[in-house]
C-alpha cells in the first residue's frame, strides 16, 4: 500500500484544482476477449493552433464498471490526435461506472475542429481485477502447497 496525493480538476479542466490523499494498492488485471469501440466526437467548435494542447468537449462516453479504456493509435482527425480523455471531478475507481466528457487534443497544424467531427476511437475492454498478494505471500503459499 502506498499513500498517494491525487490532484484533479474540481469543476472543469483549467478550473479550480483539489487534492485528495488516499491509500492506493497495486493490482493487476486480466482483459477478456470482449470489448467495444467508442467513437469520440466533438461536441463543440474549437479553434486549434499547432502544438498547443487544447481541451475539447465531447459526447459523453460511458465506461462501465470493471473496464479499462485504451486508445486506438490510428490518427482519425487531420488536425491532430487525442492525447487523453478526461472528466472533471474526483477520480473514481475502476470498479465504478465513469463518464468521460472531454479530451486533451494535440494539434499538428492550425485549424478549426467542428462539432460532430470524429476525433478518435477508443477501445473499452472488460477486465477482471486481480488483487496482488502481499510480497512473499504467493511464494509462501506455493511452498506450503507443493512440499516435497
Give structural attributes.
148 residues; three-stranded antiparallel sheet; 6% helix; 56% strand
Structural notes for this entry:
By secondary structure, the chain is mostly beta strands. Helix content is 6%, strand content 56%. The protein has one helix and ten strands. The longest helix is centred in the C-terminal third of the chain and has 9 residues.
Q: Distance N terminus to C terminus?
A: 34 Å
Helix content: under 10%
Order of helices and strands: EEEEEEEEEEH
As a whole number of angstroms, the C-alpha radius of gyration is 20 Å
Query: What class do helices, strands and sheet pairing give?
Result: mainly beta
Average pLDDT confidence is: 88
Question: What does the secondary structure layout of this molecule look like, with pairings?
Answer:
Layout: E1 2-9, E2 17-24, E3 27-41, E4 46-48, E5 54-63, E6 67-71, E7 80-86, E8 98-107, E9 111-113, E10 118-131, H1 137-145
Antiparallel strand pairs: 1-2, 3-10, 4-9, 5-8, 6-10, 7-8
